[in-house]
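# step 3/5: fold
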Amino acid sequence: MTSTGDATPARDALDAAFAETVRRTGASIGVLYLLDADQQLLRLEVLSGASVELAAPWARVSLTAPAPVADAVRENRLIWLGGQEEIAHRYPRTAMALPYPLTMAAAPVSGIRRWGALLLLWPAARPPYMTGRERGHIMSRCRRLARLLEEAPEPGPPRWSATGPRVVAPATAHPAVSPALAAADFVERLPGGSCALDLEGHFTYVSSGACELLGREAGELLGTLPWQSVRWLDDPLYEDRYRAAVISREPVSFTACRPPDQWLEFHLFPDSSGISVRMAPIGVLPRLLTAPREAGEAARGVVGARGTDAAVPARAGQLYQLVHLASALTEVVGVQDVIELIADQIMPAFGAQGLVLSIADAGRLWITGHRGYTPEAVEHLDGLPVDTDLTPAGRTLASGIPAFFASTAELSRLYPQAPGASGDKQAWAFLPLIISGEPIGCCVLSYDHPREFPAEERAVLTSLAGLIAQALDRARLYDTKHALAHGLQQALLPHVLPEVTGLKVAARYLPATRGMDIGGDFYDVIRLGDTAAAVVIGDVQGHNVAAAALMGQVRTAVHAHAALGTSPARVLAAANRLLTDLGVDLFTSCLYAHLDFARGRVTLASAGHPPPLLRLPDGDTRPLVMPPGPLLGVDPDADFPLTEVPLAPGTLLALYTDGLVETPGVDLDDSIAALADHLAHTDHTDLDQLIDGLLEKASATRQRTDDVALLVLQRVP
């Protein structure tokens, strides 16, 4: 899809179908997310019932994020959340960013391929359950949206959102018409004042009574935001009450003090077209209009405690955004995750077009991530001394004080060479990254055009820098441990499998989806002269350094005894004695096979390991039936029965660890049978591709919670 040709009609059709979906489902807010080209990020494409600013913290959602829309796409199912308590229990990060009474549903938009997700929000007044008819209707509307995307002139990842999300009017929205004289007279006769806000919070109508109470003329108010045009309403609590009305679609009340001492009560009545507001001095409005007073009492207490001369606080939207970003930063793992989060969420949130993230090491600033800069500019800035005069980064880091430059002229006065080093950037925010008083790096956000940095935005960015520093410090520690673990794992596994005449072999090791990429799974191929070979696969309990170290000892013991030509039963018995002598608390499963090409036979012994899969030359495939011995390290006098089967040319054996077949709630025998069936119908001419297919099949429906080792061998003439 592009923005040229027939893209506009296709886009209009999608928008119309989306608006109709929101109307038919009765949702107060609807959001359509579409996957980007890499199928790893959900981008907000179309929005209804709220403003883009309100949805800014959720404009981009990683497909791996713990969010309802991400789960709906990954699991290809509808996610229903029947209230705030359920949201907080299942998605605490979402609940922190949306602390309002509501219900929501996230459904996948998929057809021939995955396109994205539909998010629908309802006021808390609706029943906290979803009927089968409602569920079917929502999924039907999602399939309709998918068909429109697939029928677009240029199939492929949508690129309409390059200009930002689109807001479509709800199908039930009231038409904007000039108020008739009779309606105006009616409003003017009411006690107190009346005004109307759109869904973005702007004044669209103000009565004379409201002007008098707010202390502003209508021309000074229309088109503005209350917390910008009325100074004493510039409090995040009042903006939060507006947000609560928009999102929950329920009446909201609060009280505020107009200086010096006049208390006013405000009643907000929202619907899909905007908010009607009634205001009056306390006690003037009839009790009929009074909504729940908890919010008003809280507001009065907060304002009274702060007084009217307190410093102007940060916008409530920015505070919620900060909470959202803070919760996201707690979930990142490695340094690259931190960089991607800053680029995908923090940069758009603050309108930045450029990013440079540097780490201080050995007296220099090394760039670990960047966006919006040319390779030449990055090369020029990378490795600068911390005390450089080329840019403010070093001085900012040394002082611990952020530096903001609204234009190239401001920057040039102190750092004449800096604008040229930054390419075409024209405004900058240099944020020091400090941990426990120690500088660890600098985060630079840059802009393509001059811009001011209001005091409230500087405060938010400064707070955010502290969160980035903590996330980056954790990420660096994780990456260090990861590199150590990965190096240890690679050192313990065979670098290259030996070439054995008459045998094709391929192997693969995959760590658990979450963890340090280290575990106790191992495999080996051992050449035993010209007419024999041995293969072994095993799994030490655990996913840590201790498991990997024990795995190395077991693999060495097996290799040493196998090289002597010992039978499989005696090889496992020797490894078993080693583990019992070491007195370790970790148990090990192991499968050992001796291949005799001269006799055309393979002899196997198992120590509590899953059975291998045997594929005969005629294609018949089944798990090999063999009596298993006990796990290694349990009984020092254990016996390990032998199993012998023919090894004709074309015979294929697949040895694997339980991480490939274990799925919670699924019988292990059923999983092994399903794997054997997949192996029977997979092309075996290329063993590496065969392994890829087996791994893809196993991971398509679940997240790996255990390591996986897979060794496939085939007898060839």
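# step 4/5: annotate
The two ends are 52 Å apart (CA to CA).
# step 5/5: archive (pending)
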